[in-house]
Amino acid sequence: MSVIAVDGMGGDAAPESAVAGALLAANEGVQIILIGNQRILEQEINKLGDFPSSLEIVHASDVITMEEHVGMQIRNRTESSIWTGMDLVKSKKADAFVSMGNTGAMLAAALLHLGRLPGVERPGLAIVLPTPGGPSLLIDGGANAESRASHLVQFADMGTVYMKMIHGFDSPKVGLLSIGEEASKGSTLIQEAYAKLENDSFINFVGNIEGRDIVTGSCQVIVTDGFTGNNALKIMEGTVSMMFDVMRSTARKSFRSRLGGALLLPALREVRSNLDYRRYGAAPLLGVEGAVFIGHGRGDAIAVSNAIINAAQTDQLGIHQQVQSIISSRYT
Question: Is 3.40.50.12280 the CATH number for 121-278?
Answer without folding.
Answer: no
